[in-house]
Design brief:
This protein is of the alpha+beta class. It contains 15 helices and six strands. The chain is globular, with a radius of gyration of 20 Å. Bound molecules: glutathione. The site of glutathione has 13 residues, from helix 1 and helix 3.
Length: 371
């Protein structure tokens, strides 16, 4: 580790069942960066004052700085390391890995929230876990009332409020199953997505696959039955040892990665285009058709417009030869939003490029999707 003992240890404000907290902890453990967990709810005013946002995770550095948003956090943390970077040297692999991270962060989220809060045993498990870890002793609420409020907030806001209805539910289920099938095909033949070493694609996918899909009762049983190699990969990622996990990445993108990229294009990139267009028109909600499913009313996210801007910037930074290679692996017309001349209305988020040390924003409004 190169850096600044002055910045460590870190205090991570999050939860042991949180999507993005699991992603960042996987990396901190891999690099042996010392950290402790801080109480999220008891410190929410400090998080708002320090990082500008109350979301999981927010990180306080020992030198008094604050970070939010795991994507720029990982990018910054990785500049502080001596070991081989998790960002591939090959610009094509690097671009595709960033795209997979974004798909894991911003597309699989809906499906993960649906599995956790739509299914009764999963909802009960998650509400109990959040109550015990975050609420008990902090908010003066009787346990049954707290559990009910948690379930209502999450199911109303992040499932129904994020477009999962009787008509779209099959697709929120299928999104997970397709991701599992794609990943099973990849990690059955090598330890990590892009070869013998973990990359940002693996760390990104740990967000949904670890704290949600491999832990929540319903999707974890599906994972064990349908994709045991993915179950093993999750454990491998959580138990990473840099001495045992170095090695080469694939020289060329292969068919199993292309199948995953096809799914990314058909789902996540459709959502990116529709969300950015609706943002540009000043709308609060939008509809979209993904594969054979019509989502009628989804909340617009300014943060996701910024994510798309970041991907388009990464694309623009590639030279002509790398761009041609990327295009050869993203044959779907849905991929064109990454490079076509669509004029996006700027998000105006993080215009100083200070993330993760900027004033953060939530993915939706003030946290929960607005109805
Ligand atoms: N882009 C952020 C997203 C963080 C995020 O949305 N975390 C969720 C929980 S895992 C959250 O705090 N949601 C807001 C809420 O529940 O109020 C990141 O990568 O860290």
């Amino acid at each position: 580790m190169r850096q600044g003992a002055c910045a460590w240890p870190l205090t991570v404000y999050g939860s042991r069942i949180s999507y993005y907290t699991g992603k960042i902890e996987t990396y901190l453990r891999y690099r042996s960066i010392p950290y402790k967990m801080g109480h999220y709810l008891a410190n929410r005013r400090r998080l708002k004052a320090g990082a500008g946002v109350v979301q999981m995770p927010v990180i306080e550095l020992a030198d008094g700085r604050w970070m939010s948003d795991t994507t720029p956090m990982l990018a910054w943390l990785d500049t502080q390391q001596d070991g081989p970077s998790i960002y591939p040297v090959d610009p094509v692999l690097n671009f595709l890995a960033l795209l997979i991270e974004d798909y894991a962060d911003e597309w699989l989220w809906r499906s993960a929230m649906h599995y956790r809060w739509s299914y009764r045993p999963d909802r009960q498990y998650a509400a109990e876990a959040l109550y015990t870890e975050l609420v008990r002793g902090v908010l003066p609420l009787p346990r049954p009332l707290a559990l009910n409020r948690l379930k209502r907030r999450q199911l109303g806001g992040f499932v129904k409020g994020d477009g999962v209805t009787r008509r779209t539910r099959f697709h929120a289920d299928r999104t997970y199953l397709t991701a599992l099938d794609c990943l099973q095909a990849i990690v059955s033949s090598r330890p990590f997505l892009l070869g013998q070493a973990p990359s940002i694609a693996d760390f990104g996918l740990m967000a949904p696959m670890f704290r949600h899909f491999s832990q929540d009762p319903t999707p974890s049983e599906i994972m064990r039955q349908r994709a045991p190699a993915v179950y093993a990969w999750v454990a491998r990622m959580w138990n990473l040892n840099p001495a045992l996990s170095g090695g080469d990445l694939i020289a060329e993108v292969d068919a199993p990665i292309e199948a995953l990229l096809q799914e990314v294009c058909e789902t996540h990139l459709v959502q990116h285009r529709q969300n950015a267009e609706a943002f540009g028109e000043g709308r609060t909600h939008f509809g979209m058709t993904v594969q054979d499913c019509r989502y009628a009313r989804l909340p617009v996210s300014r943060y996701r417009v910024w994510c798309l801007e970041q991907l388009r910037k990464a694309w623009a930074a590639l030279d002509g030869e790398a761009q041609a290679r990327v295009k050869s692996h993203l044959s779907s017309p849905m991929a064109h939003i990454l490079w076509d001349d669509t004029k996006l209305v700027p998000s105006t988020y993080d215009v100083d490029n200070a993330a993760p040390f900027n004033r953060g924003i939530n993915v939706y409004g003030s946290g929960v999707p607005p109805r």
